Amino acid sequence: MRILRIKQAEAALADGRLDEACDLLADVETRSHHRAQQLVGQLVRRLIERGEGHLSAGNLQQALGDCVKAAGLGGNLSEAAELRGRIARALSHKQQARRRHGDRVATAREHLDDGRLSVAEELLADAGEDSARVDLLRHEAALRRSAAEAALRRAQAALDRADYTAAVDELLTARANRAENDETADLRARVTAGAVGRARAELVRGRADLAGSLLRRLQPLGRPGQEAEDLLRVIEHCGRAWSQVGRGELRRAGEVLRRAQGMLPEAEWLRSAVDAADGAAAALESLRAGPLGMLSPAEGGLAETLPAGQPSVAPSRPVEPRAPEPPVLPPWGGEAAEGAAGASGSLVPRRFVLRVDGAGSSMVVRDHRVTIGPISSSQRPDLGLLADPSLAVITIERAEGDYFLRSAGPVAVNGKPTTGRLLADGDKIALSPRCRLRFRLPNAASGTAVLELSTARLPQADIRRVILLDRELLMGPDGAAHVRAEQLPGRAVLHVREGRLLCRTDAEVTIDREPADASAGLPVDRPVRIGPVGLVINRT
């Protein structure tokens, strides 16, 4: 049996099957034969030679394996010890290189998060070995650069046509993609200067509402400068004076308006307002000092002699008209008009509720940008949540098929605080520990996203998800659908065309139990059936 194993080892060695020969000679009794001892010497030399080859090729683990086998067969040979030392040094160098690579990638991540895209891209280009982490960072950097450059181009175009509101919005989009460089700073400075100039012009001609809206929009970009702060102070003074007028404090209103006039002397309407406030105050004082004042209980006149329970002829202070509240504008551009059209036809609103049997209710939003935050927040979010008013308002924007989150204050995404991030499927967004959402892209071929309300709540308690509609909305029994309807035999695709919500499906579609006209679109506030599934589209 021993001779047979030796012969098998000789054959394996001759054929280059070194590992098999090692296994055959592993038995101590077999190696004690003089014929096997000669074979062991040859095998050890072959193992060391193969280890040298693995070391030269950079296959350090294979080289170490051959070295260990050679030492196990031939003992502590000098050739094996020398090879082991070189392998150890190579392993040490490789570990150091990996640490340097890890540090480089971590530094690139920091620069990417801080908006220094060029520096991050240079570090990633020199990262050397490719890895999933490096590829992901390169992809994220490319996406951010693409989105930021597109936003900056749109901001420049908006600036060229003096549309400062759009320019500010695009700069905020660029900031959400962490794009910070000299070009961005220069564009931001020019947009800020232009917007402040426009706000001043609007304020001079008496449109304090437009000026205030534009100046407040600038605030997320950073401190706009002393001129903007002075204009905001003028608007604040005007608002305070108007409140004092409503309370009948006309002298105080005149004083406040004079301070505003001193800060904006070119505004003729402020001079007229000061004169009007002073004149009204003088007229009111004249009335109080005249015969009518004798009817005031405060002056000890006729009203003091009236029988108990009899109302005074005149109040002690005239009742001034209340200052009108500012109009409440709809949160979505054009929604009111479009919704009204949908009442008589089949035009679908910019935002609607989709109620599907067995799948619950979903809020569907067609706009590419949506703000989400506490319903009582001063910023008036598009989607108001029942949450602490002090929480941050976040913006989720779709740009070229990608979704970006930005926020004026830090919010947690996957447990890490951020003010701007490219969202990926499954990301968990937390405005607070008790107000969390989950971002999902159920279908890779569709740009439509879903916000699952984990612990966040809308005022409509039955709505548990928000669908950010891109081109189409998929309903079906599988997990890749945006609305999972188990009873549907196949997929139904809802898409908007010419303002109408059309349905493409193999199932029969009926409206009020009558066959639907596929070109007319699905109606609002009327029952619809797609095969066995019923649904209703309601305006919000």
What does it look like?
There is one protein chain. The chain is α+β, with helices and mostly antiparallel strands. Among the domains are: 94 residues, Serine Threonine Protein Phosphatase 5, Tetratricopeptide repeat, CATH 1.25.40; 84 residues, Tumour Suppressor Smad4 (Sandwich); 102 residues, Tumour Suppressor Smad4 (Sandwich). It has 15 helices and 19 strands. It has a 15-stranded mixed beta sheet that branches. Strands 13-12-14-15 form a four-stranded mixed beta sheet, with no helix packed on it. β18 and β19 form a beta hairpin. The chain is elongated. About 9% of the residues have low confidence.
How many beta-strand segments?
Answer: 19
The biggest beta sheet is recorded as: 15 strands, mixed
Taken from the alpha-carbon principal axes, the silhouette is elongated
- Rg over alpha carbons: 38 Å
Instruction: Classify the beta-strand content into a percent band.
Output: 15-25%
CATH-derived topology of one domain: Tumour Suppressor Smad4
* Span between termini: 88 Å
- The top-level CATH class of one domain is Mainly Beta
Report the CATH architecture of one domain. Answer: Sandwich
Query: What's the helix count?
Result: 15
**Which structural class do the helices and strands define?**
alpha+beta
What percentage of residues falls in helices of 4 or more residues?
A: 40-55%
